[in-house]
Amino acid sequence: MPLSSASQENSNGHDHEMATNGAEEIDESLYSRQLYVLGADAMKKMSMSSVLIAGLGPCGVEAAKNIILGGVKKVTLWDNQKASWFDMGAHYYMKEADVTSSRNRAACSFEQLKELNPYVSVELSDSAELTEAMISEHNVLLLSDTLNIVGQDEEKLLALGDL
């Protein structure tokens, strides 16, 4: 399955050839291991998927890295927490300056994550809250650090599960 000659502008501002040809063909040289394990149908579905990752602490940033390298169509990063010393212990994109300036955790890793795979559009949400409208724009919602996102509000957590 050859690489399409179509071009798209990624969120990093560079033109790159697409990894799929209208979701019909997948670049075997880029995704050969995944094609072998998952199969072409699963890879086609992944290449058309949009993922919202809520919570970019150490676990969330690791999940984001793997999802982006996996080749989904779009990843949106969202977090309502500021960088902390606790995060820095395992958050490999966070720097001391991020903590001392109280930078948003999603913003700390955005630039590095969007460079991982030129075929994946990576966006940074600046929304103060995780909304139903944001969630409905995506095929998958990944919640990491859930208690930081919804606090102890059990009803809000259950409502997210119903979406």
UniProtKB/TrEMBL annotation:
<dbReference type="GO" id="GO:0019948">
    <property type="term" value="F:SUMO activating enzyme activity"/>
</dbReference>
<dbReference type="InterPro" id="IPR035985">
    <property type="entry name" value="Ubiquitin-activating_enz"/>
</dbReference>
<dbReference type="GO" id="GO:0031510">
    <property type="term" value="C:SUMO activating enzyme complex"/>
</dbReference>
<dbReference type="InterPro" id="IPR045886">
    <property type="entry name" value="ThiF/MoeB/HesA"/>
</dbReference>
<feature type="domain" description="THIF-type NAD/FAD binding fold">
    <location>
        <begin position="31"/>
        <end position="126"/>
    </location>
</feature>
<dbReference type="InterPro" id="IPR000594">
    <property type="entry name" value="ThiF_NAD_FAD-bd"/>
</dbReference>
<comment type="similarity">
    <text>Belongs to the ubiquitin-activating E1 family.</text>
</comment>
<dbReference type="GO" id="GO:0016925">
    <property type="term" value="P:protein sumoylation"/>
</dbReference>
<protein>
    <recommendedName>
        <fullName>THIF-type NAD/FAD binding fold domain-containing protein</fullName>
    </recommendedName>
</protein>
<dbReference type="Pfam" id="PF00899">
    <property type="entry name" value="ThiF"/>
</dbReference>
<dbReference type="GO" id="GO:0005737">
    <property type="term" value="C:cytoplasm"/>
</dbReference>
